[in-house]
Write a structure and sequence with these properties.
Elements: H1 6-18, H2 22-28, H3 31-114, E1 117-121, E2 124-128, H4 130-144, H5 148-161, H6 168-181, H7 185-198, H8 204-218, H9 222-235, H10 240-249
Antiparallel strand pairs: 1-2
Length: 252
């Protein structure tokens, strides 16, 4: 599209009027009238130039306004788009924070389940782990159900895995009983001797010695039976097992 400047428009109008045949005008007017006519024409040219310039300015203003309006619309669209992204990101952040909170809540609950618990074992308070307790109780449940072979396997595994457990002495003791229930006296004696050797301060130690004496009796080994009963009475004189040992040994 062809564009015009203000000066260009004025010059074009002036040239157009200047190109009119002056000799024709001169024939009709004298010098003064000719000068007057030229001034009038120039005045008309100036007026037309001003009108044209005004129109150009108005058009330029409108164009500028339209441009600004277009830019405003584009800016508002961009703002709307960014607000949408902010809303999405805000929602994602809220969901992430909720998931993180749920994760830590679940983790805390899991850790609490893994924390040692205070339990009473043979009248004594002790701290035991959750898996430790569940393993012991599962093994003992096998013994109580009459599955002595399965109980022996589970109790032996428990003692090897948790040798320092507060349940270890009891597990070793019930392991001996599981062997005895299967009429395996040699294994029963070995298991109960481990109780006396490794856990001498356990309340189960005296009972373990009494069970050893019972195994020797089963094996008709009177010498070791008497020896074990006397050792039990000497080592754990105040225990109920010692009282039973005295009765078996014929002592008062």
């Amino acid at each position: 599209m062809m564009t015009f400047s203000k000066a260009g428009v004025a010059a074009a109008l002036l040239a157009a009027f200047a190109a009119l045949p002056l000799h024709a005008n001169a024939a009709l007017f004298d010098d003064d009238e000719a000068r007057k006519a030229i001034l009038e024409l120039r005045s008309k040219v100036d007026a037309l130039a001003r009108d044209m310039n005004s129109r150009i300015d108005t058009k330029a203003d409108k164009t500028s306004t339209l441009s600004l309006l277009n830019q405003h619309d584009q800016t508002m669209q961009e703002i709307a788009r960014l607000r949408g992204q902010i809303e999405v990101l805000g929602n994602d952040l809220a969901n992430a924070q909720k998931r993180q909170k749920d994760f830590y809540t679940d983790l805390d609950a899991r850790l609490r389940k893994l924390e040692p618990r205070q339990v009473t074992i043979d009248g004594q308070e002790a701290a035991v782990g959750v898996s430790e307790q569940s393993s012991y109780e599962a093994a003992l449940a096998l013994f109580k159900s009459g599955d002595y072979k399965g109980a022996a396997t589970a109790l032996d595994a428990f003692v090897k895995r948790y040798p320092e457990s507060a349940y270890a002495a009891n597990a070793q003791y019930w392991l001996g009983n599981a062997y005895y229930a299967q009429r395996d006296c040699k294994s029963a004696i070995s298991a109960q001797q481990a109780v006396v050797k490794n856990y001498p301060d356990s309340p189960k130690a005296a009972d373990a010695m009494l069970n050893i004496a019972s195994c020797y009796t089963e094996m008709k080994d009177k010498a070791n039976t008497t020896k074990t009963l006397n050792a039990l009475i000497s080592r754990y004189p105040d225990s109920s097992a010692a009282q039973t040992a005295k009765e078996r040994a014929g002592k008062k």
